[in-house]
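COMPLEX REQUEST
Ligand: zinc ion
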Amino acid sequence: MCGEASATCCGEDKLCALTCCPCNIDIEKIKALVNEPKYICKQCGRAANEEKNLCQPIPLT
Ligand SMILES: [Zn+2]
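STATUS: Structure written out below.
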């Protein structure tokens, strides 16, 4: 258990940050952000609907 999910490991509202710690994952929140992916993060390879949720977004298409 890691107590409060203060997202201090990466900060921000990015998937890269939201998924960096197993204790920090809110799967329902993440599902809503990735169900229609249009961008992929070239740094960590995650995909998301909106570029604001990725640290290094590039368009998928
Ligand atoms: Zn990333």
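REMARKS: Residues 16, 41, 43-44, 46, 54-56 surround zinc ion (CB under 6 Å). Residues 1-8 have pLDDT under 50 and may be disordered.
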